[in-house]
Structures are given as structure tokens and as C-alpha cells.
Queue: 3 jobs
Job 1
Amino acid sequence: MSEEPEALAEGASARRGGLLTLIARTAAGFAPYKGKTAALACLLLLEIGFQAAVPLSFKLLVDRAVGQRDLQVLTWVLGGLGAGIVLVTLAGLLRDRLYAELGSRVLGDLRLRLFEHLQRLSMDFYARSRAGDVLSRFSNDLASLEHAMTSAIPWGVLPALDVVVSSVLLFWLDWRLALLAMLVWPFCLAGPRVLAPRAGEASYGRKQAEAEALQSIHENLQAQSVVKAFSLQPLALRSFGALNDALKVAAARFSFLSALVERSAHFGIQILQVLVLGAGAYMAFLGLISVGSLAAFQTLFLSLSYSLSYVTQYVPSLLLAAGGLLRIEELLSEHPALGDAPGAPPFSERVRTIRFDEVGFGYRAGPVSLDRVSFEIGAGQSVAFVGSSGSGKSTTLSLLMRFYDPLQGAVRLNGRDLRELTQDSVRARLGIVFQESFLFDLSVRENIRLGRPGASDAEVEAAARAAEIHDFVLRLPQGYDTQVGERGGRLSGGQRQRIGIARALLRDPDVLLLDEATSALDPRTEAALNETLAHAAKGRTVISVTHRLQSATTADRIFVLDHGRLVQHGRHDELLKDGGCYKQLWDKQSGFALNAERDSAGITAARLRGYPILEDLDEMLLGGLAKNFVSERLPPDRLVIQEGDHGDKFYVVVRGKLEVTKHDGTQAGRRVWVLEDGDYFGEVALLRDVPRTASIRTLTECMLLSLQREQFRSLLQEAPDLRGKFRTLEEKAYD
């Protein structure tokens, strides 16, 4: 806690020094382009030199050409000014083109630096960061920098140079008036000096509020199916309205403070203009200064004043850019949570053994995911990790891929700690297929080639054949050159998974990792993909993570995880014989009859007896009840029940995952549980017509069985001796 005030003070100090930081960082951005920057500086000096020469020519024109009727001086001065206009115009065009090129390069370098930095950051960063906030660094923050840089020369650099040159020439014309004119500095700078730090902090606050609003919009666009399914439009509007109000307040505060910065300087300039004009006119009246010198002096001072005014008008853009730069610097200051150790050698062997030694791990601000887990996997073995949701299955793959490092213990390949090897060389030996294979908006060929960017077309097609998708690809309009759309939206789930398998196989990995690779698919597609994986996995070590035990029955070994601990391991038949956690999971997922042709499912009487609410029914009644269950296939992100609605169905999950949430004032609500194969919900609806206490929506494609309350009530009519039992259950549930 003692460090928190220091951190806040450091952040405030950084915001106050934002303008100086902005100037320093921008100058550093031009450093790689010294030649073009020097040429730009010469062109600027030429332009500013001509701007200074124009008011100085007034002295010659008034005192000699007009006052002494010297035609030669008049001709030379006007001719020189005319030639200067042509020269400066051409130089200005060249300067604009040169600066446009330099500015785009500097911003492009910064944009690339940001993107490269994101590629180096660990998964820990992405787990705790919001996409909208990161995107705002590339959109709003870089846009404010671009605007400031675009306006820099006409509103910043040229006026600043003009102020310096004009100040020197004023002293050359008349030092007495120049001393009076120099009062413009304290008059102009006093207000901005006091107000600019506050405006800088307001700029940062506005940028933060913009990022919050952008994140809300991004989240809302991603969750439109949830918003519509749960009728969350009013809640979404209230939530965004609050953020929009905060943004309006932050924007108004920044606009007012930046306007004060500009106005305070402008007020001082106007006062000085009157004072200098009065003093100069009085000196000319007394003969202490020539009329030509007064004209030149006043013109120079007006030029200086206007230039200062331009600079002060440019300050708000600088303050906004400074706030954006500070947020960009915050992102660039993020350090990867893990990296290659200095001098770490690459892993160049084939994988013979994979070992977890007393591995412990927990995600930030969460419970322990793995608790002193130890096991070893030999080359060519097929193993499966099973367990309920949150048991730590996928965490094992994340540690093996070295997305994270264990908090205790070690993960080893051939006895070597992963932390002592380079990450890329380890991952080159592994091929992974995720639950949902992410496809980029590229062609089929390029999506597969991402597995090994240097692969030839023949190797890509060979991987597609191994994934048994080659024939399908050939039937596409442009074959392998067909674009798959954003996230592979033009393909089915099974087709996306096959491309994901082809991408993994293209690496020719020693170890094939399957992270719920088929769990989101329908039974027919899953069965076909499992056959494909069985062929593709020959000769490789295969590590599968699945919550569906049927997929693990052929594995050489099954590891059973429960709340982060490895509680059992062995073959399927051995584990069933031993009982325990695996047997409980198997029993929960058993007793369903899937009909792939009709895309339907049924449930056995024995399985119904496993639900507490039905355990006392006799076999005949359970058999009759089983016939009344109706199959329902639901796509991902489909609302099943909504909190507060009155329910009339009891549900059993045959396949898929569903999320249970409770309302907590946010759009998505608070997740309290994840339901998987064999779970059930809505049993209270069989007993009484009351509002649902939670909302449930599908996370993947789901097959459910449902039973209507009225059908259950009819059953009770046939078994009057059960009415008392269910009446007791009802009273207990709602007492």
C-alpha cells in the first residue's frame, strides 16, 4: 500500500511533463532520417528568412525608396521580393512533400513498434487487458498524434522559428522598443505555464474516457447475440450512457482548459500590441526613430504576435497528442511476463519424454489451477486429460506450450526445463488444435501455411490430404485460393477444424496437442474428425484435453484432474474398475442414445435414476418418463432460460457447454458455473411455477433433452404415492 501514492504521484508527474515528452519522443522519431530532416530544416529556414525579409524591406521602401525617391532601390527591393515569392513557393511545395513523407514514416514506425511489442507480450497481458482499450491506442491515440504532427509545421515549427528570428531583428531595429516588446513573453507564457499541466491531465482523462467508451462499443458488438437473447438493450444503453456522460464531462473539461491556455496568451498579446504601437509612435513623433524603422518594427512585432498566437492555438492539439502519447508509452512499458533466458539454446532434439515435476500454477486473481501435479509421457503415447470444467485440463497444455511458466515445479522436455530453452524452438516441436480453430481472413492455402510459413504448395496440399479436407477445398470456387472470410465465417465448424488440423500437421510436430478439438461439433462431424485425427496421429505423441470421456476411451493413459489435483491415472477399463472421480464422470455422461441420422438423442431409465429428483421412481415409470423427453439442438450463444422468467421445463445436457450467469448490473452478468455433458438444470420447474434464479446460454453447439412440467404432473397422477415426496421436496426448496 505504501507504494500506491508514489505510483499515483509518478503518473501525475508524467502527465504534467507530457508536452516535453511529446517533443522529445517526436524528435527521436525523426532521428533515423537525418538526411531528409536536415533538408527539411534548410527549407524551413529559407521560408522563415523570406518572412523576416518582408517587414525589413519596409524600412528601405519607406526611408529610401519613397523618402529619398530612389527608383533603383525601389526596383531592387520589389524585384527581390518577387523572386523570393517564387523561390519560397517552390521550396514550400518541396517542404510539404518531404514532411508528408517523413511524418508518415515516423507514425508508421511507431505503429509498427506498437504492433511488434504486442507480439512479444505474454498471454498474461492478453488475459488481463481489454481489446477495446488496446485498439484505442492504435485509433484514438495515434490519430491525435497524427493530427498534431500534420499541423506541426504551419502551427508550431514555422511560428516558433518566426518568433525567434523576429525577436532578434527587433533588437537590431531598436533595442529600446525591443525591450518593451519582450514583455510579450511573460504576458503570453504566464497563463499557459499555470494552466497547461492541468490541461495535460485533462487530456489524459479524456483519452481514458474515450478508451472506456470504445471498449464498451467493442464488447457490445461482440456480444450482440447475448444482448438480443437476454433483451439487454436497455441495460446496454444505460451502461454506455454512463460512459458517454463521463466522456462528455472529460471532453468539456479538456476543451475549457485548453481554451483558457489559448485565451490567456492571446489576451497578453493584444495588450502588448497596443503598448508597443503607442510607444513606437511617440518615439517617431519625437524623432527618435525613423518612420521606416517604425513600420518595419511594428510589422515584425505583429508577425511575432501572430506567430505566438498560432503556437498557443496549437497547444490544445499538442496537449491531446501528449495524452495519447502517454497512453502509448504505458503500453510500450508493459514487459513480457516470460521470455527466453539469456543465452538459452534452441531445442533441436525430437521429443522423447514430457514431464511435469510437482507443477503448481494459478492465474492472476484466481484459485490454484494446478496443485503439485506430476506425470510423465513417453514418445508415441496417446494420453488424455479429463475432468470437470475448471479442473486444470487446458492449463496443462498452456504450460506445455509455455504460454505461462509454472509458479512452482518445472515442465520438462527430455529432462530439460522449458525455461532454459527458447520458446520458438519448443513450440516448433508441438502442433496444437484448439476447440475453435481461429482462421484469418486469408485464403485456405495461406491459413494452412501459417503452420509453417516457408512450406511449399505441395506440402500445404499434403497436410490438407492428411486432414481429409483436400477434396472439399478443390470444390471451392477458387480452390486453395478461396478466401475463408473473417474468423473463417464462410466455412462450417467441421471444415474450420480440419483446416486447423492441417495447419498443425504442416509443422510435422513430434507432439500433437488437442484442446477440446471436437467438443463443439455435432456427433456426426465429431466422429468423422476423430477418425481423421486417429490416422494423422500415427507415429506421434498425442495429448488430448477433453471433458467428453467417450473420446478418451482408446487413450494409452487417462489422467483425471479434479480441482487442480491429479487424482487418478490409468486406462479406461482400469479407471472404471477403480471407481472414484472417473467412474462418477463416466456415469454422468452415460445413458444417452445419439441418433446421428435424425440428429436427435434419447435417455435411458437407468440414467434418469441418477438425478436426485427422480431416483425413487420405479423402472416402469422411468421408462415412460424417458419417452417424454424431447431433443433440442441449439447453436452457440443461444439463450435457454432467462433469469426472472417463469420456467416449465427440466433440461439434461447430452452434449455441449452452457454458461450459468446471475444478474450483477453488467451486460453479460456474473458467471457462476459452466454446465457440461450429463449435467442438468431447471429441476425446480418440475415442482413449481416460480421465476428462474439464473440465466443459461449455450457456449458451444448443444444437444439438450427437455421434459415439460405438465408431462411430469401427469406422471404423478399415475403414482399417487410419490406426491407426498415431491411435495416435501417443494416445501424444502421454497421454505
Note: Confidence is low (pLDDT under 50) at residues 1-16.
Job 2
Amino acid sequence: MRGRSNARQMKRRRREAQRKVRRRQEAEGMSTASHPTRPNRTSVYETVEEEEQGRIEAVVEHARVLREQLPRLLAELSQIRDPRNPLMLKHKLTTLMVYGILMFVLHSGSRRTTNEKLSAPAMRDTLMQLFPDLESIPHHDTLCRLLAAIEPEGIEAAQVGLVRSLIRDKKFSDHLVEHCYTIAFDGTQKMVRRLLPDDPWLQRKVGGEGKKREQYYLYVLEANLVLSNGVSIPLMSEFLDYHKGDNDRQKQDSEQRGFFRLSQRLKEAFPHLPIMVLLDGLFAQGPVMSRLREYNWHYMIVLQDGSLPHVWQEYQGLRRLLTEQDRLSQLWGDRHQHFEMLNDIEYRYGENGRKVERIHLVVCEETWEEVDREGNVVQRHSKWAWISDLPFSRETVHVRCNLAGRRRWCIEEDILVEKRQGYNYEHCYAENWNAMRGYHYLMRIGHLLNVLASFCSRLIRAFKDRGPQGFIAWLSNTLSGRWLHVAELQPRLTASFQLRLVLPVPQLPVLIR
């Protein structure tokens, strides 16, 4: 009993300490970031008629978002060469592609589950009426065979084309950083197998001494368009390939090699787009900076403590000479931030230091208060550092560091969403190399469409109330039931529509004089 009494006292102590911290932060002009959760309440609908109307509204608006984007996607997808015998075709290529996209939009899961779910009569009839390009519902093996036979890069080209059209329509123009579109890169492991599924998979030895065994794994380098408000848009993927490594030196493919291939494809896709690249500490190296300078791209690269020792020595030696113009202190969210900027550092690399890059360094030290498990208020501290090709100043450091450099985390969160929240990133839909990549690209398109829907002005409240996964589950339940009379909804579905995105606004800092 004494233990329970102590636990209750500890809980009250923590709550009181948290209230004191919040009051102190509010007195200093700080604003704590909110983390809204789904409301804990009973249904907002009082009658069956109200629920039916709410479900119809959600289906119609979600379908309108997809119907507006599908023509752009299908125009690109129709360019893929279909290797099948035209005399024996039952399903058009575009029909199979719409089926594959809807599989991920609706979080259907595995191939077997998709077969059962999308071919159910009620779901089948509803989807075919909502999306006229879905002329039939195939068996999922038909899609798998098609993906194994085509060049899957054409599917990604459709995804890139859709993002290009959104950029052209200025959907993201209010959330740029110094007039640049910020693109974050990050690598992640997709799958692991004990037996080799297909030749391009990478391999490594795992296990303790005397128990070493071969393991085969799949690794992908992702690129996302990350806006200054933290919204992340799936863009491109680069699969690491065993045969693209340095076979003469017995080195496998790596993230660095994948970055050079992916950056080249990105440049070809967006030759004139002003871009700022966000990279982690793995890419703080001369050849990467040289490539970015060659492409006329700006960059923000995380600088870890052990990376580029000469740059850190330069910073430590010149730190005491920094003036007030090279320092900035501010409040941002619930944190005190202190920036120190050192511009025009000469970084040499290559044989005998013959190659030179001129870079600029910023170091951010921040402190904040937290309440520990015992109810004590403790001070936390962290340090961040970035290098860039652009000089830092008091006017630009907040935007470049907080709204660009730190936003690189958003791609990590995005990958986590794809792995754990309905998109089955780590599921092996096919062991065939082409088919596996085709499913991956379809998954990224499905995620992109759901991101657009989640910020659509007419759906943003529904997504917030139910959460992304909850909303998609609710939507699927509506599509598979008898809630809809699609023929009666055709006038609304075919009415003119313009995608209006309601994107969040970043927090503003408060300068400390």
C-alpha cells in the first residue's frame, strides 16, 4: 500500500512541476509545441442519417482528390511499354496500375488480403464507379506478373511527374526556404532474408565468432520534398544494387554511391528547380559537396563531432574572435537557442589536398527544461552543427537551421509511417527484382496521394479527428458496405474541383536581446 501511495504522490508532484514549467515558459514568451491526439469521445453522429452523410462526404472528397491526380499519373503510366500479347489481354495496363495504387491508398496489406478485399462485390462495384479508369478488378497475380515484366522506373516517373505538376501549380510556394525547394535524403533497410531472393540483393555476414552466416538484405535511399512546415512529400527512390558496387575492390554498393546516382536522376527530372539538399553526417565529404556545387544546388549537411577535423579545429581556434553579428540567441518553441556562425572556411580534400571547397559552419546549442520521473525539473542540453555552401547571418540562421536543417528528420518520420502505419514498407510483395521495385513505387504513389488528401481543405478535419490510419480504415469500411449509392453521387464527383491544401505554419522565434 505504501508503494501505491508513493506512486500517487509522485504523479501529483510531476503534474505540479509540469505546471510550473509551463507557467515559467509562458512568462518568458515561449510557446510549447502541441502534440494533438485523437479526441477521446463517443461518436459525433446522433443518427444513422448523420453518419451516412458524414461517410458520403468523406468518400466523395477523398475520391475527388484522387480523381484530379489520376489523369496526370495515368498519362505517364500509359507510356510504359506493355510486353504482354495484345490479343490475350483482359486488363489494360492503366487498369492494373490504378488497382495497384488503390491497394496502397486503402492500406490493403498483402497481395492475398488485397485479393479478398478489393474483389468483394460491394467494394468492387463502388471502386469501379468512383474511378472510371478502373475498368475491372483483376486477380492480384496478374499485377505481379506485369510488374515483373515491365521497367518499373516508369512508375516512379509518373510519381515525379505528379510532384512536378504540383510544383508548377505553386501548391508549395509559400513554404520554401530562401526560395528553394528543400529535398531530404535518407537511407533505410527494407528487407532481410537468409536465402538470396534475387541477384541484386546486398549481402553481409552476421553472428558471433564461429557462427558467422550469410545474410541478404535490401537497402533503399529515399528522397522526399520536405517543406519548411514539416510536411514531407515522397519523391524518388534509389535501390542499392550488389552489381553497382566496386567489384574490383570487392566493395558493395553504398549510400554514397546511391546518392550520386539519385542526385543525377533528380537533376535530370528537375533541371532548373532551385533546390536545397538536406543530408546527414554520412555525406559530409568533399566529393558530395563538389557534386552539389556542380549542380548549382545549395545544401545543409549535418556535421558530427568526429567529421572534418580541420573544420572543427578552425572553429575552436576562431571562436573567441566571433563578434555579435556572428552570434544569435533566441527562444523557439520551448527551447533557448544560441547560434555561433563561422563563414568562409577552406576545406581541402583529395590527393595532397588539391581540391578545395569553401564552406560555412553554424553551431547551435540549445537548452530546455523537462520533468523527470521523480518530479524534478532538470535542464537538458543538446548541440547541433551544420555546414552549408551559403554564408550564415543573423537574418538567415533561424530559417536555414530550424526550418531546413532540422526538417531532415521529417524524412525519417515519413519512412517510419510507411513501415508501421499501413503501407507495409518492409513487406516482400514479390521476390522478383523488378516486381519488388514496382510495388515499392506504387506504395510511394499511394502514400503521396494520401498526404495530399490529408491536407485537403475539406478533409483535414476528418484526418485530424480519426488519425491517418483511422480515417483510411473508416473510409475502407464505408466503401465495402452499403452506405453509398454512387449513381446519385456522380454529379458531385464530376463537378469542377481544385485541390486546396491547408498546410501548417511554422512557429516563429523570439529574439533574446
Note: The mean pLDDT is 92.
Job 3
Amino acid sequence: MSPSKLEIQSQDLEIHPRHSGAPAEPPGANTLERALRDLQVHQIELEQQNEELRRVQLERDAALARYLDLYDLAPVGYCTLDAQGQILEANLTAATLLGVARSALAQQRMNRFIALADQAPYDQLRRRLLATGQPQACDLRLVDPRGAPFWAHLEARAVASEPGGGLLRVTFFDVTARKAAEAALAQAATVQSAIFNSVHFLSIGTDTAGIIQVFNIGAETMLGYPAADVVNRMTLCDLTDPREVQDRAIALSAELGLPVAPGFEALVGKASRGREDIYDLTWLRRDGGRLPLAMSVSALQNPHDGIIGYLLMGTDNTARQRVNAERALLTQAIEAKNIELECARGRADEANLAKSNFLSSMSHELRTPLNAILGFAQLIEAGPPEPTPGQSASIGQVLKAGWYLLDLVNEILDLAKIDAGRVSLEIGPVDLAGVLQDCSDLVSEQAAKRGLSLIFPTFTPPCHVNADPTRLKQVLVNLLSNAIKFNHPGGTVTVEASPGRPGRQRIRVRDTGPGLAPAQIAQLFQPFNRLGQKDHVVEGTGVGLVVAKRLVELMNGVIGVESAVDQGSTFWIELDTADRPASAGPADAVAKPGLQPVARVRTVLYVEDNPANLALVEGILALRPDLRMLSASNGLRGIALARAERPDVILMDIGLPGMSGLEALTILTADPATRHIPVVALSAHAMPKEIQLAMAAGFFSYIPKPVRLAEFLATLDAALQCGDRVP
């Protein structure tokens, strides 16, 4: 204790002496001891007060922390605004709802977070609050910094006790779910009101005695009574046909197995038993008219499942009856149309059959003379005797024109078959590398004659597409032939393959020719349009690209072209990719027949009614001293010769007089003496379906006319070798 305090306490002691009656103590020592004791007591009291003060301070800090926790974590957002609407303070919930960090809320204006459409209601709320000092509240939409809106209930009040005044305390919380529920309820109420008050539906509610309690607008419109004249004044029986009510009572008694009295009970009998009740009933209008309605009746129940009345809803049955009548007429019209369509389909099938027969006949009639032209030209070219140089040149022209004419016939027939829908495809996984190799073999000689380079891609790993292998080869050969024909001498034809659209493979045929102008590109894929090449030295029919396009589309693919003048052309096709098929086993391998002629003389029987064709084959076989030929002009004669001579091979025309080649083959294969003889079809019937039918019947092979000399001899040698293997 400081000396000044000791002096003060000493003075106090002197002013207030002890009145004990004892002799006075020496002024020095006793007074100092008492002062020290009092000082110790006072010090203890001060320590107690300080301890109490620390306890109170801790409690206050704990209370403040609890308050701050409650303030920050309250389910309601709190913001303190100044008079200009700027945020001075906000709790954590407010920051979370607004999607902003709490530290970033300070100094921002509250209307920054108010949806644009709700700015006016918010401004009005602030003005009313500042003007009246009374708390204000409203629902409006708040938005976060990303612009995502949510509904909030917002309340604002003035903070009069704050220094400076003019402060506002704003609280808000998310009411989006409530707004959605309110909207759903409002929508449901609107729908229910619309249904109940629809002029198209009669709605009548009754009590348990049948007295009408509810009569909606639809009932007023349909029956012509105002609700005021009906409610609590009339029963259902007053408005319905009594004869129908009586008939219904009889029918309902039979259905329920209980007596049902005519009248109100007949109208609600099933509904009163908790069952669905739907029936037709005629109502009596105020003007005396009759209105048939389709009715639905249900019981109205209280919370204890007790029936308190009935609800009848009806729709105008006149309209339904009219609709049913119209539906019946429509059904009759549809049936008549179906019959008409069936007849049209039959006529179309007949037309397609006729077109198919015509195509087959045309193919036969065109190929038969071509067979003689090309066949004898090949014989003369092969010699002996060797033709002179002049004769060789003439024969070359004949063969060139003949094969060109055959290509023209094939393309036109292909186009006609596609248009008639008579093309059958066998689509499956096709090895693209194998197809392109075959195409290369077919066009390499043509390219070499013009000094062109052919570049084909390699495939690692193998690539497969979904296609018909024969038709795909036909399309690619057409594109390659065009790239060779319409190219500069010494140019290049490049084939590329790469992925196209997802799940597709694109094959491009690129040339270095003169290219195409936009006007020419627009005319591509038009039948017989050669883009101004009619008098050009380049041969062509203008049909090949059209056939290629339609074949590609039949294989679920697309075809296109990219070209520019003096920059060459690129024709491309795009097909679906396919999984690699299982590898063919040894049993699937087909051994190629040897083409060397056999040593001993063999007999070939040719069954043919056309003298020119007989002479042609006789001339071809004359080139082979190891072969002798027998001939028959019809199927019966051919069968007889086969049985008598047992030839090594039989060549059979299909379109024979009297008995067809197919019928003759059936007889030959049924006879044990001739069933082992290979029979080769040699026919101008070269449609794919005809070839398939013949091969399925059991022919060893099928040579379409006009014959190619090398192909004919190779097939003949294969048949001879097959006959040798038969015991």
C-alpha cells in the first residue's frame, strides 16, 4: 500500500479512536498493526471482487459467443442496412442464402440481390418503412451472383436505438418450396374449378335423400334451369325420365340380386354400396326437350366414411353418339381404303412381276445375239488360222464395241432392277482390303494402258464394313473406272480409307483429272447425263454413277463428290463399320480347279436350241483336241443322249423349248446313271435371281451369255476334274 493511503488510514484511525476503555496504546506500533490488518482485509475483499468480476466477464463472453452463434447460424438471414440501403453487417445465413462470402457482403447495396422484376416492391417497402417507422414485410425473389433466383420472405424494421439513426434491420428466409406448393394448390384449384364449372360437364350434388344441393354452370346450360330454381327445391327424379329410372331399377335388381325401388335409389344404388356406377340416362330439359347424357355417379363421404350425399357428373351423349357414328363411318372408309390398297398392292405386285419378267426377257434377248457376236469374234481372234493384222484390228473393234454394248445392257438392266425394287442384297461384314485388292486386279490393265499409277491403302488392323461384297465391288470398280477414264495421261488414282462419322468408314477415290465445275457437280447422279461428254472420245453411258448411288443407299450408306476445275475429283462412299467375322476354317476353303486340259478325249454334251450358240460352242471346243461335242436341241433329246453316251460334262441352256433346263436337271439328278455328271448352265438368263435359283437346283456352275472364252474353258476344266473324282 502506498504511503498516502497509509497516511489517510492513520488519520482515519485518529479521527475514530477505539472506545474500549483500555489504556491507550503507543501511537506508533498499535496503529500501524491495525492499519496493516485492515489493509489485508481490504485486499482480500478486492481480490474477491476481482474474482467476481472475472466470473461475470467470462459469463458475459460465453453469452456473447452463444448470441453470435445464434445470430450467425440462425435459419434466417440478418442484414443491417443504412438509410441508403447499403449492407453494414450480415450474418452467415444471409451470406449463404445470397451465395456470397460474408466478408464480401459489406458495403454492397441490398437491391443488388433483388430480382429485377421485384425491385419496385422492394423500393416501396423501404420507403414505407422510412416514412412510418412501422415494420414492413413482403415476398419477393432474391438472386445470387450467378443470377439464380429463389423466393424469400423479407421483413424490415427500423433500428431506432442505433447511433446515427436511420438504420434498418432486414431478415429473410427461403420460401421457394412454399411458393411452389402455393402455385400447385392454386393450379389444382383452378383446374378443379374449371372442371366443375365447365359448360361441357353436368355436375349435380345431392344429399342422401336426393335433394339437389349443387347445380353447376354445365347443368344450367344443358338443362336450362337456373341453379336458384333447383337447389333445395328439386330432386333428381324431377329431372330424369321416369321410364328409364324404372328400367334401371329392374336391371339393377337383377345385377345386385336385391330389390331396388324405382326412383332415387335406382340412380345411386351401386354408388351407395361403394361401387363404380356409370350408365346412360335421359334428362328432362326445362323447355321440354330431352338430353341423353353419359353419367358417372359416386358417393360423397365424411372423414368417418359415412355417406353424406352423391355427386353425379355427365357429358352430352349426343356428341358421343355422333362420334361413334362418325367412327363407324370412318372404320368403314378405312376398311374400304384397305381393300383398295390391297388391290393396288396386288396390281403393283403384278406390275413388278411383269417388269421383272420383262427385264429377264430383255436380258435374254439382248445377250443371245451378243453371245454370237462376241463368241465368234473371240474364236476368230484365237485362231487358227491366225488373223492378219488388219483382221486383228477389225476383230478388236468388234470385241470392244460388243463388250461396251454388254456393259451398257448390264447397267441399264441394273438401274431398271433397282427402280423395280427387285435387287436382293446379302449384307454382312466385308473385308475392305480384300475387296479393294479384287478391284485393283480388275482395273490395273485399264490404268496401265493410259499410263496411270494406282495407289491403294493398307489396313492395319483389318477393316470391315457392312455391305454386299459383290455390289460393293461393283460400286468401287465404277468409281475407279471413271477416275481412270477422266484423268490426264500419266496421272494418278489414289484410294484412301479412313473413319467417317461415328460408326462409319469412308472410302475415297481421288483422281488428278480436269475436275468438275459446280454446275457439273449439280448434274451428277442423273441417269444418262454424261455432263456434256456425248461426243467425247471417252466411252460411257451416264448410268454407272446412278446405279452406284442407289446401291450404296441400299447398303445404308451415302455417296458424295468433292471437286474443282483443274484440281481433280474425289468421289467417296461411307458405310457402316462391322465387327471382324470369325475366320473361315479349312472346310470353308474352296480349292481352285486346275485349268490344264486333261490328257484323254472327253465328251461334252451341249443341250441348246439356238443354232448360232451351238456353232459357237462347237467352234470353241474345236480348239481343244481333247474334247468332243454332242448336241441336243431340247431337254428330252438331251436326257436320252446323256443316258446313252454318259458324257463327262453337260452344258445346259435354261430356256429350252418344251422342257426347261431346270426340269431336265431334275430328271438327270434323279437317275443313278446320270446323277454323277456335272451339269453347267450356259444361258442368256443372267438375272441374279435366276442364277441363284439355278445354283440352288444343283447346277455345277453357271456361265452367263455372252461367254468369255477364258472363263468358259476354265469352268469346263473344273467340271471335268470334278467328274474325274466321282467313282
Note: The first helix runs from residue 3 to 15.
